[in-house]
Write a structure and sequence with these properties.
Helix content: 25-40%
Radius of gyration: 18 Å
CATH class of the largest domain: Alpha Beta
Distance between the termini: 45 Å
Strand order of the largest sheet: 10-9-8-11-12-14-13
Number of strands: 14
Order of helices and strands: EHEEHEHEEEHEHEHEEHEHEE
CATH topology of the largest domain: Rossmann fold
Largest sheet: 7 strands, mixed
CATH architecture of the largest domain: 3-Layer(aba) Sandwich
């Protein structure tokens, strides 16, 4: 399987908007580069017409120039090694790749070799989810990670003491990457499933559900998350902007979910709900 890198020349204020637009049409990994943004998609999923329509949509905001590059699967690691640097969340958790040296000064260390999957901690939504997780008691808890990507949130849950871990994702590459990262972090008893939350056979209830997806999926699936939460259990969500918070909270409230915390970074937001 090959991938296509889409390079868009774009000013910084519009990068996050374009990431959201591209994520909605199948792009699942992003990096900031000189003068713009690089987004990645499976070669067979690339649709030039979609990009041309985005160019027309935003032509009054910035000059939309782009180019594409085919990336063979075996070259992906080399590409990431040149750009991927460790990140630190709240001076407590360090996320690094396997080719970085360990740093024992942090309480938690997560090893992520991202391949083509979204979720290295560099994007605001993943960072915010990790930040929120650090403030939730995971010890002995059952955790469901919806749209696991690289598996980073599941690994964080394990580091925090969760003992029963389940992940689901639609993408074959994400499933493969999650399994690889689970092994890198020496996790056991993690159940990895391919499919949607509607299609995969899950436990009746979980103590914590993690969902870093996008606004439309969250609005559609919030009732299902609530059904799979035990009473007083937590739901952590991200993948949306500050202006989307009211619609997320409104739908969550109708599902017997109460907001207990909210954090924001560069207009991206993460909310912690508790089932009442």
């Amino acid at each position: 399987m090959n991938f296509l890198a889409l390079h868009i020349e774009i000013d910084a204020p519009y990068r996050e908007i374009m990431i959201a637009e591209l994520a909605d049409v199948g792009y699942d990994a992003f990096t900031d580069v000189d003068q713009g943004l690089q987004a990645y998609i499976h070669e067979q999923d690339f649709d030039k017409e979609v990009i041309e329509n985005l160019a027309k949509q935003y032509k009054d905001h910035f000059t939309f120039r782009y180019q594409t590059q085919l990336i063979h699967k075996q070259n992906w690691n080399e590409s990431w090694e040149k750009q991927y640097q460790p990140i630190v969340v709240d001076d407590a958790c360090r996320v690094r790749a396997s080719f970085h040296k360990t740093d024992k000064s942090y309480r938690y260390e997560i090893i992520i070799d991202p391949k083509m999957s979204f979720g290295t901690g560099h994007h605001e939504t993943t960072f915010l989810m990790l930040k929120s997780q650090l403030n939730i008691d995971h010890k002995g808890k059952s955790v469901l990670d919806v749209g696991c990507g690289t598996g980073i949130l599941t690994i964080m849950a394990s580091k925090l003491g969760a003992t029963k871990l389940t992940t689901i994702d639609l993408d074959d590459w994400a499933i493969e990457n999650t399994e690889q990262n689970i092994a890198l972090n020496h996790l056991t008893d993690v159940h990895v499933h391919k499919g949607t939350i509607r299609a995969v056979e899950l436990d009746t209830s979980y103590d914590i559900i993690l969902a870093n997806i996008n606004k439309n999926v969250l609005l559609d699936e919030l009732p299902i998350y609530s059904e799979h939460l035990s009473n007083r259990a937590y739901l952590l969500v991200s993948g949306f902007y500050e202006e989307d918070v009211s619609s997320i909270i409104s739908t969550a409230t109708a599902c017997h979910l109460v907001k207990v915390n909210q954090v924001t970074k560069n207009h991206w937001t993460s909310i912690v709900f508790q089932k009442n």
